[in-house]
Amino acid sequence: MRAFDELMAFQRDTEALSQVAGRLGWDQETVMPRGAASQRGAEMAALETVLHARRSDPKIAEWLQQVEPENDVETAQIHHIRRSYDRAVKVPAELASTLARVTSEAQGKWAEARANEDVAAFVPVLEEVVALKREEGAALADGGDVYDAMIQDYEPGTTAAEIAAIFDAMRPELVALRAAVLEQPAPKPLQGRFDAADQMALATTLAESFGYDLSHGRLDKAVHPFSSGSGLDVRITTRTSESDPFNCFYSTIHEVGHACYEQNISRDYLLTPLGRGVSMGVHESQSRIYENQLGRSRAFTGWLFEQMRARFGDFGVDNPDAFYKTVNAVQNGYIRTEADELQYNLHVMLRFDLECALMQDDLEVKNLEEAWNARFAADFGYSVDKPSNGCLQDVHWSVGLFGYFPTYSLGNVYSGCLYEALRNAVPGLDADLAKGDTAAATGWLRENLQQHGGLRSPVETIKHASGVTPSHAPLISYLKTKFSDLYDL
C-alpha cells in the first residue's frame, strides 16, 4: 500500500472513534440519566485517552514523511492530519484525559447550577476547567499567545487581534442602528400558550423544509440546542417554551443549518478529515443564513404565519406583515440564543472579551459574575436579573470551549457575504420562500460550499462560494437595509 493509503486507513478508525465520543456527548445532553454523570466522565476520559494516543501516534509522523499527494484532495487530507498531529503531540496524554473527564462532569454541574441560580456552586469546577485549558493553551502555543492557540481549534488561521479588529469595526455600527430602532414603537408580541408537542411537530416540518434528512438524523430536546455528528448520523436538539414558540422554531432552523452542512458533505470524504465542516465560523455561516437571511425573511415568515395559524389558531398577530415584524422584533433581552439579528453580535463580543481575560489570567473565575454583569449593563443599558440570564446561560465554558464564541460572529460575517451572492444567483428566491420552498437556496449552498467540507481553508471556503474575500461590510449593509425597512427609519 502507498503510505497515503495506510495513513488514511488509520485515520478513518480515529475519525470513527471520534464520532463515538460525539455520540456520548449527544446522549449526555438528551437522554442520559442524571445520576450517570460521574461514570460518563470516566467513559469520556477513557475514550479521549485512546483518541489522543492515536492522534499522536509516532506512525503518523513516519507516514507524513513518506506521503506524496497526487491531487488537491490528498494534499488537503494530509494538511489536516499534519495539523492535528502537530497539535496532539504538544498536549500530554494525561492532560487530555483529565480535560475530557473534568469537562464532562462540569457540564452536569453547570446544568444544576443554572437550574438553581447558584453561581457559587459552579465556580470551583469552572476554576478547574480554566486552569486545565490554560495549561493546554500554553502547551499548544509553545511560547506564543495562549488564546490564539485555542482559536485554532475552531477557526484555523485566525488570531484574536484579527477578530478584535472586525468587532471594533462592527460595534459602533450595530450600537447606532440599535439606538435608532429602539426609539420606534415595538411590534405586537405573540399572545397565548403554545403546546410543546405541537411546537415539536412544527419544528419537524421546518427541519424537513430546510432539507434536513431525518433518515440520517434525529430531532430531540435539550437544555441548550446543538448539532452533533457528521456523515450518515447527524443529530440536532431544540427546546420549547409554551410562551415563546420562536425559541423552538428558530433554534431548530439554526441547528438544521449546521446539520445540513454535515449531511451534504461529499460521501467520498466520509470518516476523513475533509468529511466535516472546515471551521466553526463557516459552520455558523450555514446556521445563521438558514435561520436569519432565509428563515426570518419577509417571504418565509409569510409562509410560517400560515403554518402557525393552522396549528395554533389565533395568537394575537393579525397578518403576515405584522408577523414578519414580530419575528424580527428588536427588544431588550438577556439570552444570546434568543437575541435578534441586530443585537446578537453584541452578546458575542461580551463573551469574547471575557474569555480572553480568563485565558490571559486577567480575570479570576470568582470575579466572572461581577465582570459579566458590569459589562452587560454597560453594553445593553440594563442589569442582569439572575445568573441563568447572565454568566450561567451558556454551556460552552463548562465544557472547555474557549475560543469558540467569536466564531458565532464570524459566521454572521460570512453569512452576509454568502447571502449577497445567493440573491444574485437565485433571482426567484423570495417567490420560493413564500411557498416554504428553500430548495433553490439550500441547493446553492450545498453546491458551492457544503459538499466541499474541509477541502479549503475557512477564508478560501467563503471566497470560493461567494466570490469575495470575507468582510463585515455585506452583513452591516444587510442589517441596515432590513431594519430600516422594518422600523421605517
Q: In CATH, what is the class of the largest domain?
A: Mainly Alpha
What quaternary form is this?
A: single chain
Widest beta sheet: strand line-up: 1-3-2
Q: Mind telling me the C-alpha Rg?
A: 22 Å
Q: Which band does the percent of strand residues land in?
A: under 5%
Judging by the overall fold, what is the CATH architecture of the largest domain?
Orthogonal Bundle
CATH topology of the largest domain: Neurolysin, domain 3
Report the structural category.
mainly alpha
Domain module tally: 2
For the largest beta-sheet, the strand count, sense and barrel status come to:
3 strands, mixed
| Overall pLDDT metric | 96
Number of separate helices:
20
* Poorly predicted runs: none
Order of helices and strands: HHHHHHHHHEEEHHHHHHHHHHH
| N- and C-termini, Cα separation | 66 Å
DSSP helix fraction = 55-70%
How many strand elements? 3
**Inertia-based shape:** globular
Active site: 255 (proton donor/acceptor)
EC number: 3.4.17.19
Pfam family, one: Peptidase_M32
Cofactor: Zn(2+)
